Amino acid sequence: MTEIVPDAGFRKNHKLKSALLQHNALSRQGLSERLFGLMFSGLVYPQIWEDPDVDMQAMQLGAGHRVVTIGSGGCNMLAYLSREPESIDVVDLNPHHIALNKLKLAAFRYLPDHAAVVQLLATDKARGNATMVERYVAPHLDATTRSYWKGRSLTGRRRIRVFNGNFYRTGLLGRFITTTHILARLHGVRLEEITQCRTPREQRQFFETRIAPLFEKPFIRWLTNRKSSLFGLGIPPQQYDELASVSDTGTIAPVLKARLEKLACHFSLRDNYFAWQAFARRYPKSHEGALPDYLRADYYSAIRTSVDRVKVHHASYTELLSTKPAGSVDRFVLLDAQDWMNDEQLNDLWTEITRTASKSARVIFRTAAEKSVIEGRISPTLSAQWTYLKDLSQHFNALDRSAIYGGFHIYEKSA
Questions:
Q1: CB atoms within 10 A of CB 122
Q2: Among 89, 50, 88, which residue's Cα sits nearest to residue 72?
Q3: Which pLDDT does position 283 carry in this prediction?
Q4: 73-88, pLDDT tens digit by residue?
Q5: What separation in angstroms does the CA of 371 have from each of 251, 336, 367, 391?
Q6: Cα angle, residue 179 at apex, residues 294 and 54 outer, rounded to 5°
Q7: Which one of 117, 120, 233, 415 is CB 3.0 to 4.6 Å from 385, fit for a cystine?
Q8: Residue 288 in contact with residue 102, Cβ under 8 Å?
Q9: Distance from C-alpha of 33 to C-alpha of 19, rounded to nearest angstrom
Q10: Partners of 367 in the beta sheet?
Q11: What are the Cα distances from residue 377, in Å, to 197, 211, 274, 297, 382?
Q12: pTM given for the model
């Protein structure tokens, strides 16, 4: 496995800087990019925010497939293992995500049983979790990853101790969600009360009477008009512009309201752990709803016996693909990474995707806006070799429980 770079800060993370920085440092756009980079250089996503059910159905993922995916919080990579693919290569530019992915893999491999995995990754305020990791998991981590988790954060606390509390309230996204709860409370709304709703009708009523009016508050409208206000969601300046383009007014508040409406109203809370994390800042208890797919008991054995099929790389997607033989990848998962990219980066990426794609390979990705980000931007030579499955893409976009993206897209190799 590729080691984590020793210095995880933005200043020395040349891979992240190369992907993110597109403007002069003294320009408004350049300053915004660098501020985002500083915020993104720590742990961002304790949980991934792409629906693995949608991914696996859209990819038609099965035994024998060779997969390349972006790591993020690591949840979906583990869910993919339930389908017993031949291999999964995980890439990420954030060393903190690399450490988290490796820890989750080792937890499945070395913790005593399924209950211990659920205790570590889905139970808040389990005071013995850090001790459990040190006993069963840490001895099997590579030296760099073990040093990371035994090390201390900027607060002086050992990183591994975050698992003794609510791990999902940490990281940039966890802190952002906490901030939104505080902001809602200042306006008289307790977002967690939506979890008391028992029917879709009650969920919609709560949204329309309690959540939707928040977007008319002057301070919230002012706040959401600042690009930096959404850095906590892991949304870089380029992606903010894509989101704003969806709105008739060119502002972000109506888009955020629509995405929250989908999250709150389009799926039963019992079936949507994304809604629980957003509104309750935790996973549901067994009597309240379902856990993430990778924590299901019926997936446990397949995942545990397959963890050795995963390799984790601190590298860009294009960088990793450039090391692979032609025709050696069956499924590509890009998350929303292309929203960050300029035309040159997109063409470099799709050149490598096209070269390494096997016959009938599939690529899936998400976009902040509704349209596919590669249409009209990659070269005709590249695009001619792929078929956009538009109707199927729209079908699965409607089913995505995370609800935060405007578009879900599937491309299939056609030549």
A1: 18
A2: 50
A3: 96
A4: 999 999 999 999 999 9
A5: 18, 12, 7, 13
A6: 30
A7: 415
A8: no
A9: 11
A10: 407
A11: 44, 37, 32, 43, 10
A12: 0.89
Contact 383, 389 (CB under 8 A): no
| 141 CB neighbour count, 10 Å cutoff | 21
Helices 237-246 and 28-40, axial angle in degrees (round to 10): 110
Share of the chain above pLDDT 70, in %: 87
210-234 per-position pLDDT tens digit: 999 999 999 998 888 876 666 666 6
pLDDT of residue 43 exceeding 90, the answer is no
- 235 Cβ contact list (under 8 Å, min separation 6): 243, 368
The DSSP symbol for 225 reads T
DSSP state of 268: -
Q: Return the biggest CA–CA distance within the chain.
A: 57
What is the C-alpha separation between 348 and 212, in angstroms, rounded?
41
Amino acid, single-letter form, for residue 56: M
Q: Which DSSP category does 2 fall into?
A: P
Distances (CA, A) of 31 to 139, 178, 218, 222, 236: 42, 26, 26, 20, 12
* Cβ pair 346, 398 in contact under 8 A: no
393 vs 32, 199, 250, 399, 407, CA distance in Å?
Answer: 32, 28, 25, 10, 8
Residue 108 corresponds to which tokens in the numbers above? 């499945």
pLDDT band at 128 (very low <50, low <70, confident <90, very high): very high
- Amino acid (one-letter) located at 162: V
Distance from C-alpha of 192 to C-alpha of 275, rounded to nearest angstrom: 10
Average pLDDT, the chain: 89
- Which pair of structure tokens corresponds to residue 43? 């742990």
Choose among 133, 183, 187, 181: nearest CA to 161.
Answer: 133
Instruction: Please say if the pLDDT value at position 8 is more than 60.
Output: no
Of 80, 68, 69, 8, which is closest to residue 44 (Cα–Cα)? 8
